[in-house]
From TrEMBL:
The chain crosses the membrane at residues 71-90, 96-113, 120-141, 153-174, 186-210, 222-243, 255-272. This is Bax inhibitor-1/YccA family protein. Keywords: Membrane, Transmembrane, Transmembrane helix. Pfam families: BaxI_1. It comes from Populibacterium corticicola. The keyword Transmembrane applies. InterPro entries: BaxI_1-like.
Amino acid sequence: MANPVFNNSAVFGEKANRDVQRTQQQQMDPRLATEAHGAYSQTMDAASMEQMYNAPAATSADTDRMTYDDIIMKTGGLLALLIAVAAATWVLNPSLYIVGVIGGLVLGLVNAFKKEPSPALIVAYTVFQGMFLGGISYIFQNQTVSGQPLDGLVFQAVLATMSVFVGALFLFKSGKVRVTPKFNRILLVGIVGIALFSLVNLVLVATGLLDGWGMRSGGLGIVIGLVAIGLAAMSLISDFDMAATGVRNGIPKKYAWSAAFGLMVTLIWLYVEILRLLAILRGSD
């Protein structure tokens, strides 16, 4: 469970799952069930039973519990907003990506460490990230190699991101890859390692000791890019598992915003890594 959105939530993850399982076991205790049934039978008359039998099945709106549909709808809405803002930034003013970087970083940290989801802050985060992605995509697309722009780079990155997402979802749903404590430990160590490497590389480039993309260019850049994409795919699988745990545990519907935000964070990271790797493969420094 490497995604901080889920790490800092009391309703996702292994502890929450254990608590629900303990409650379910208590409810399934034969002695408790017998006692409850006796008390229930004494207070429930025939008319009430008939009324309950004829009543429609409870929906997520009635129970206020999160469903997969809630997560899908909110994630889809945030993705649509992200794409719309990115397209507008590309056309109107790509330099706004700087504003997007700062705003996205601040709101990303705020949302990640909030115990309760804030739809307004999550939407604002999406807007800033749309500005960032629109601007950075424009810059990558218009880099030149031998005097020629990298035409089609962004489309290829979007297509590759969608492919990785679908592949990760298939592996999770099929059970071919299971999220275990060992899986999460490997993911956490990998993400920390990539983060530290990127920080050192950024300092070296900023101080002028390295130029261009620093250590993230050439053969080493390709290897690091592939590792980062692999970790992002693993993170997606972990995100799917946390969302499934939340639905299984019947957590409140509002936490669908947290699940959607967590998926957005991973998808944005995945897209940027793929964009960078494709640029390196096409000869950009």
